[in-house]
Amino acid sequence: MDEQKSEPVTSFTIASSDRVDMEGEAPGARNPFSGGQLVEDKSGHFKLESVKPGKASLTFSAPGYLKRTLDDVVVKAGEATRGVIVKLTPGGVVRGRVVDAKGNPVAGAQVMAQNPNDKSNDRPQRRDRGRGGRNGPQMGMMFGGGGAGQNGNVFPPGMMAYAAGLGLLGDKVKSTNPKGEFELNGVEPGTFKVLAFHRDHTSGQSDDLSMTESGLVDGVVVTLPKGGGVKGVVRDRHQVPVGGEIVVAFSPSSFDPSGGNSGAGMYQGHSDASGAYEIEHVAPGSYFLVATRGDEDLNPMSFFGNWNFDLVTVIADQVVTFDVIDSTAGACKVSGTITYKGEPIPHGNLSAVTFDTDNLLGVEWKAARMLDGGKFEFAGLAPGEYQLNLDNNGPQVRMPLEVPDAPEMHVDLRLPESGLEGRVVDDASQAPIANAEVVLRSTEEVQGNGILGQMLSREGRSVRKRTSEDGSFSFERLSPGEYSVSARPQNGQPAPDGTAPTPMLHGPSAPMIVRVEENRTEHDLLLRLPHALSLGGHVLDTQKNPIAGATVLLSMQPKSNDAVQHGRTDANGEFLITGLAAGTYRATATAKGFADSSTSNVKVESGAIKPAECEIVLQTGVHVSVRVYAADGGPASGARADLYPLSGERTNDPANTGKAIQNLFSGEGASDANGLIDLGRYMPGEYRLEVQRGFSKATDPKVVLKAGQGEVELKIDLH
Questions:
Q1: Which residue has the higher pLDDT, 358 or 131?
Q2: Cα dist. 695→255, 310, 652, 698 in Å?
Q3: Higher pLDDT, 620 or 294
Q4: Which of helix, strand or coil describes residue 693?
Q5: Which residue intervals of 434-473 are DSSP H helices?
Q6: How confident is the model at residue 142 (pLDDT cuts 50, 70, 90)?
Q7: Confidence (pLDDT) at 562
Q8: Cis, bond preceding 558 (omega within 30 deg of 0)
Q9: Is 144 helix (H, G, I), strand (E, B) or coil?
Q10: d(C-alpha 145, C-alpha 705), whole Å
């Protein structure tokens, strides 16, 4: 009943994950599309059948009201629980208009309210009694009238517009009238935003709003920009146009709940008979551009077997031309069987990864369709070297595969049966160390390019395990070959009162090179963790003033594939990095407004009387920007560039790759509508400039930055 008016609510939905499916083809209580049970009764009565015996959780929702969840409703087998009274509280009302960039009303726009701070999966806002560990309604009640909920947060933020267009958000979405006006009911108290979507515009959102005590927020205006777009041609690796492809652009940053996304982060188009595609009304930002096609049966896995992805950056109100290469079209069909100890594997997921690609990301990934009897099939793999990854019961298995330039290839794969076992101990006392991370990495060099290729080529050849209580570890199903094995302690854990983590007692072990023979397990490896050492120091400017908030990256020399250690300077420009092993390091400092600077040959020694120290001086350097021109002479938007020093060492530390990926997710680091890229500040010296947009590349082999220049704008033509 209505809690304020004491009148019956005549139409409402009941949802629960504690119901029993009585029909064989029922979607299931946890199925996202199962919805709830709609009740329409003039007196507000309801009857819910097929509830599991025990304590049930029931969620009630109705248009214009706040959801309410009753926990611990006692249900006895063979009996009806009677007298359940549910009081629903009316939610707030939001009124406003949706307009385009010129201020004209937008009719037929879809509008919803969303709490930007709610990161739960649509957790009920009101509960009568708590039950430990229960978060209210499960997947089955988060859609439709009974469960999309106030925020619809079962979807990532970037999927809101897509879900609304499919009707998956139920009555939480309203449409604007011919004057662009809307009214939302049942809005939860607290801070929220109004999101609006329309097929002829990109999405828009209001500023942060707050529901007033009166329960009414009026005069909200949401503006929908026209947005940018992406167009181009899908071709195979022989430059032949490919029609019938689904082309999807999705933004990585839009799937971050804390990113304040306006609800649209995925857009779709398709290629016609000439291979041409166009995606319109796209919000500015960086996108993964995926081209794929299904098989005749539209098996979902077939889309992953054919997909090709690259990176594109869309500028506001600009249409970016970006051609896509479908490497699977006309490629080699690879099929075969997978066995383990003579028996076909019953199930699993098989994928193929290659870093032999010219796309900006530097990696291609395909999934095989798995069939009965251990059979698999890749719809098409371009010629080259691949790493096959099999995930099923047991540890992931990685196997090399060479694909020829041929129409078809059949290969029978036998899972390796080699292994490696050992222990991690304290170097001084020989006591076992639990929960240490052991990293097994193939010594075979695979050099990846591109934003993701550099990281994945390094991590893709490593396997990580944690030691048990007795310090033991084991790796199974390894391919024969040479491996590097190392261990590092668990990171310091924060104290119960939330203060700084406890200091690390151990540093990482020295890497051990191990040869694994076919069908043999290597035993009794012993990795020793030494006493933890530390490195402190200062980051200063040229006037010896401390620089606060600078990031210090520490990597071992010569170059190591292990993750770097990092720290941050305090208000006095001081930093301290702990948990180190003895060795020679390179310390690199980065800070906003300064060029990066490194200090090499920093020695950290065991037995030293006091911790090692170093001083890093940052200069403002030269502010570098690049203006990129397309083949037609116009500015090239969405291009990315980098400067590589001609002498000295350019670090390929994971932190550098992480910074590039962070820029990718945030949409930064790409040329704007005028073709301009801000590269930041660099020390004077000689560099090589590399620029890429899609498969178009350009290189300036020698760029000279001189001391005292202040700012430099470089120019380059893509071809």
A1: 358
A2: 27, 9, 23, 10
A3: 620
A4: strand
A5: 450-459
A6: very low
A7: 56
A8: yes
A9: helix
A10: 62
> CA 261 to CA 673: how far, in whole Å?
22
Residue type, 523: H
CA distances from 657 to 191, 256, 309, 544 (A): 36, 20, 19, 30
In this prediction, residues 181-198 reach a mean pLDDT of: 91
Which CA distances in Å does 602 have to 529, 587, 614, 615, 715?
Answer: 21, 7, 7, 10, 38
Q: Please give the Cα distance from 207 to 192 (Å, whole number).
A: 9
User: Taking CA 604 as the corner, what is the angle to CA 598 and CA 609, rounded to the nearest 5 degrees?
Assistant: 130
Per the CB < 8 A criterion, the answer to whether 413 and 399 are in contact is yes
CA distance 13 to 3: 17
Asked if 216 and 273 touch (Cβ cutoff 8 Å), the reply is no
What is the DSSP-derived secondary structure letter of residue 439?
E
Element (H, E) at 423: strand 418-426
Residue type, 185: N
What radius of gyration do the chain's Cα atoms show?
29
Residue in the structure block whose two tokens are 């600078």: 550
Q: Which residue type occupies 17?
A: S
Residue 660 confidence (pLDDT):
56
What amino acid occupies position 74? Answer: V
> What is the helix (H) or strand (E) element at residue 302, kind and residue range?
helix 300-306
The pLDDT tens digits of the residues spanning 547-575 come to 999 999 888 887 655 557 889 999 999 99
* β-pair partners for 158: none
Structure tokens at 646: 């001609």
CB 245 within 8 A of CB 292: yes
Strand residue runs (E) in 298-348: 308-314, 319-321, 324-326, 332-340, 343-344
Task: Render pLDDT for 78-128 as a digit per residue (tens, 0 to 9).
Answer: 888 998 999 998 889 999 999 999 999 999 999 999 875 544 334 333 333
Strand-pair category, 384-391 with 397-403: antiparallel
Cβ burial, residue 604 (10 Å; 0-12/13-18/19+): buried
- Over residues 592-617, the mean pLDDT reads 88
Neighbours of 607 (CB within 10 A): 7
Cβ contact 685:709 at 8 Å: no
**pLDDT bracket for residue 471 (50, 70, 90):** very high
- Cβ within 8 Å of residue 429, ≥6 positions away: none
β-pair type (319-321, 472-478):
unpaired
Helices (H) and strands (E) in the chain, counts: 5, 49
Least-confidence region, from 353-367, 379-393, 402-416, 568-582: 353-367
User: Residues 520-542: pLDDT tens digits?
Assistant: 999 999 999 999 999 999 999 99
Task: Compute the half-sphere exposure of residue 341: CA atoms within 13 Å on the CB side of its CA.
Answer: 4
Token pair 């009920």 is found at 124
In the beta sheet, which residues pair with residue 308? Answer: 291
Strands (E), 594-672: 597-604, 612-618, 622-629, 640-645
Q: How many residues are there in the chain? A: 719
Place of tokens 């000439």: 274
Q: Could you give the CA distance from residue 60 to residue 370 in angstroms, rounded to a whole number? A: 42
Q: How far is CA 257 from CA 149, 157, 269, 432, in A?
A: 16, 6, 25, 41
* 182-196, 217-231, 636-650: the lowest-pLDDT one: 636-650
Identify the three-state secondary structure at position 254. Answer: helix
The stretch 433-439 carries a mean pLDDT of: 94
> 391: helix, coil or strand?
strand
Q: What is the DSSP letter of 301?
A: H
Instruction: Give the β-pairing of 612-618 and 533-541.
Output: parallel
**pTM of the entire predicted model:** 0.63
Answer yes or no: is pLDDT of 169 > 80: no
Q: Among 68-82, 323-337, 348-362, 399-413, which stretch is predicted with the lowest mean pLDDT?
A: 348-362
